[in-house]
Amino acid sequence: MSALPDERDPQQFRLAILIGVLLGGLNLSRFNSMRYGLDDAWISFRIARNWVEEGVPTFDLTQPPVEGMTNLLWTILSAIVYATTRSDPFFLMRICGAMCFLGTIVLLAYVAARDVDHPVLAAGVTSVLVGVSGTLAFYSMSGLETGLWALLFSLSINELSAVKSGQVAASARCGFWLGLLAMTRPEGVLIGGVVCVWVLWRTRLTRSSLVLIALFSILVGGMEGWRLWTYGELVPNTFYAKPPSMSHGSEYLSWYLVEGTGLLIFASVIPAIRRGEERALVACIAALMMAGTLWSGGDWMPGYRRLVVPSLCLAVLAGNSVGSIGVSAARWWVFPGLLLWLVANVSMMIFERDSSLYSHGRWEALASLLDEQPQIEEVALVDIGRFGWAFRGSIFDLAGLIDHTVARQEGEMGVKAFPEKYFQARAPDVVLAICDIPFSDPLPRFPRCRSHEKEMMTSLLKHGGYQYRAAIELSDDPAGHQGLGFLLLFLRDDKRLPEEQFGPDPKIDLQKVMTEAYNRSTP
Question: In degrees to the nearest 10, what's the CA dihedral of 214, 218, 224, 225?
Fold first, then answer.
């Protein structure tokens, strides 16, 4: 990191950053409950545990290895934590994510304040804009890699000015950070590639540019070689499980522009873009990441984690704009954009659009009970993360994140064709489905379920072989499951579960009640 941008008044400069850090800390405190942890975090944690215990970085040891995560570096860190503590990495990884978030606030304040006439203003604006981001705070506390992703991106762009001037040490650091960024999320390969092209265009084939490109290429090449050797693929399995969808991506991006940025922030960054090539590069990265999100289909999770990098870019450029032109010029057309950014992010906090809750306790309790039953070897479900951490048996992933066959079915994420023959061949011992009503005889109507589970239940109706065994209420977590209130458990006919843990057998003829309800629900 460079020296303090404004040696004339270091106390005010540090105070400006401290305000952003305090806002970030308050934001993090909103998510101190474990229920804000996202189910997907435990996918990485179980892969990390299997890597440590069995030497195979995969989720389901009974199946060929599958890269079911998109955060290799975060999984490696989780494996180190598990190897050290032999316990659930969630708590320590949350601390890691929170520290990365606060570090990002500080680092980007320095980046924004570099080479401006009013560095205190620049640092204050950027630190506040990042600190109030509920999306970044939530995901930093969710157990996912987002905080690390943000910090590594900040470390990379922190070196751009020195890289442009041809400093070899800065170029080496930049190439290293970009390589780690690519190992943290797949989009990092694209960001690193853009920076490499910019460096070649700006400095030609100099020693510094070759060092940056070589370090980045070595890290990415090593990752791809390991990925090909381990999984037989050059991309994670989620590339197939979540195919591109422009329609979903356009909706996701549109909402982000309105409630994530307040729209006018784009006008606020113009003064910064005009002042230097590295600032224009940051703007290009933001535009490229938004275009990539539009193409890929966005995300189903709350907030806008897929657009964290554009948000960081806009925050840096907005702060740099204010620091460049001063208060008097900024108040007319830059400050309105900053105000709308704050209003948009505060509104997301108030209406809880930047976060969600999850019933981890219900999933863990059920998984632990099933794990104690030696006759239960495989369970089929969608929410595989927290359940899969407590249940060590085989998992049939209805969403396809950790399954080659399901991931390659036709259709978009969430509405893929159900691989019926494959499901029948695997014949999982237990099937779990989240629906809006429990089973009864008669059923008032066919239960409303998510697409994955609806197709699976239709398959049970068609082929039989399963009995309805229990319903577990999830109504205390409507945010996490879109208002669907019950986890229904279906047991294969040749299996039994003890009544003392699972209650008496409802003795409902599954095919009869489902057929009758289906006929009543179908015109």
Answer: 130
